[in-house]
Amino acid sequence: GQNIDQPTEMTATEGAIVQINCTYQTSGFNGLFWYQQHAGEAPTFLSYNVLDGLEEKGRFSSFLSRSKGYSYLLLKELQMKDSASYLCAVRPARGDKLIFGTGTRLQVFP
Amino acid sequence: GAVVSQHPSRVICKSGTSVKIECRSLDFQATTMFWYRQFPKQSLMLMATSNEGSKATYEQGVEKDKFLINHASLTLSTLTVTSAHPEDSSFYICSAGGGLSSGNTIYFGEGSWLTVV
């Protein structure tokens, strides 16, 4: 079966750093995506990892370890607008089908 | 860049009626598109893979006779919720890959809120 786990909720303070973890067990692996989703809106793409290591993109970084079935999204210099849900998604095979994790709701406080 | 558009963004229908939601790829061709549903405070659940020119592939537990998917062209997939019930009220969202020119980018439509009364 497919299993992708994330913490349900996290809180952090403006200006701080937060790490959102994702562990996965899927039938195959052809890349891992992180999306941000504000309530009632479509997800927006944040990052993509297919090889082990860290991908950095401005305030956001994403890390992947395929041997451990583990990824994290790191958000630096948190801003109030970063309050949203963060979705980890695995592409189990070639193509564009994604299996989403449970999602993490992040609240940023002043 | 490539964009996926979904329509309508919000729809309210009476119980027992059918509702059609459209998903279009605006400047690229998509041989496959994907339909997800999302209940409040939950993640996206894949419902089915829409295949151009052939039958859709449904995920386990999704009723294919209730959620009819048609992918008649390379730029349009439709999801019809038949005989809708209040428990079908949800956020429905489609996605498509942008093809080789967009690398690994997968685009999402804006989503459609369905309320069945």
What does the model show?
The complex is a heterodimer of chains A (110) and B (117). By secondary structure, chain A is mainly β. Chain B contains no helices and 11 strands. Classes of the chains: A mainly beta (110), B mainly beta (117). At the A-B interface, strand 5, strand 9 and strand 10 of A face strand 4, strand 5 and strand 9 of B.
Write the layout of secondary structure elements.
The complex is a heterodimer of chains A (110) and B (117).
Chain A: E1 3-5, E2 9-13, E3 18-25, E4 32-37, E5 44-49, E6 53-57, E7 60-65, E8 70-75, E9 84-90, E10 99-100, E11 104-109
Parallel strand pairs in A: 2-11
Antiparallel strand pairs in A: 1-3, 3-8, 4-5, 4-9, 6-7, 7-8, 9-10, 9-11
Chain B: E1 4-7, E2 10-13, E3 19-25, E4 32-38, E5 45-51, E6 57-58, E7 67-73, E8 76-81, E9 90-97, E10 106-108, E11 112-116
Parallel strand pairs in B: 2-11
Antiparallel strand pairs in B: 1-3, 3-8, 4-5, 4-9, 5-6, 7-8, 9-10, 9-11
List keywords for this structure.
heterodimer; A: about 110 residues; 6-stranded mixed beta sheet; 5-stranded antiparallel beta sheet; B: about 120 residues; mainly beta; about 0% helix
Q: What is the alpha-carbon Rg of chain A in Å? A: 13 Å
Based on CA atoms alone, the radius of gyration of chain B comes out at 14 Å
Global geometry of chain B: globular
Helix content of chain A: under 10%
Report the major sheet of chain B: 7 strands, mixed
- Give the number of DSSP strands of chain B: 11
Going by helix content, strand content and strand pairing, the class of chain A is: mainly beta
The percent range for strand residues of chain B is over 45%
Most extensive interface, residues per chain? A-B, 23 and 23 residues
Count up the helices of chain A: 0
Shape of chain A from CA axes?
globular
- Secondary structural class of chain B: mainly beta
